[in-house]
Specification:
Blueprint lengths: L1 H19 L4 H8 L8 H21 L20 H17 L3 H7 L5 H21 L5
Helix pairs in contact: 2-4, 5-6
Protein name: YeeE/YedE family protein
Keywords: Membrane, Transmembrane, Transmembrane helix
Pfam families: DUF6691
């Protein structure tokens, strides 16, 4: 039953990414291009996401535990350190240059375009590189 709900949630999330245009790198890059062909429509997408998520989190976290897990998996660190800042900078640079972040990249794979497969392969390689170099774990 858990797999059914995970699949439905993933499909809904993917549909939202597709409908909002977040899977289109040009649309994302135009949103980030404040002094060129700026497209503010993704600000509306982000605002709508916050409008739904913020009260949703408050409601859900009042429960003792999630419906389909033993406990909530929430971040525990409360400090901003160099690793967090470096990660945010790298993420932002990658998002700005490619117009993709992980979830839209996975959704974009459905187009069959080789550039999206290359992006996802590089993303996975980066994840393994981080585990190996920063955490000292092997794949």
């Amino acid at each position: 039953m858990n797999y059914l709900f995970v699949t439905l949630a993933g499909a809904l999330f993917g549909a939202g990414i597709t409908i909002s245009g977040m899977g289109n790198p040009a649309k994302v890059q135009n949103f980030l291009d404040l002094f060129g062909q700026w497209d503010p429509s993704l600000a509306l997408v982000m605002g709508a996401a916050l409008a739904v998520t913020t009260p949703g989190f408050r409601y859900v976290l009042k429960r003792g535990k999630p419906l389909f897990a033993a406990d909530f998996s929430l971040p525990t660190l409360k400090t901003i350190d160099g690793k967090l800042i470096a990660g945010a900078v790298l993420f932002g640079m990658g998002w700005g240059l490619s117009g993709l972040c992980p979830a839209p990249a996975l959704v974009a794979l459905w187009t069959g375009a080789s550039s999206f497969f290359l992006f996802v392969a590089a993303m996975i390689a980066g994840m393994f590189a981080y585990r190996f170099l920063m955490e000292g774990k092997s794949a």
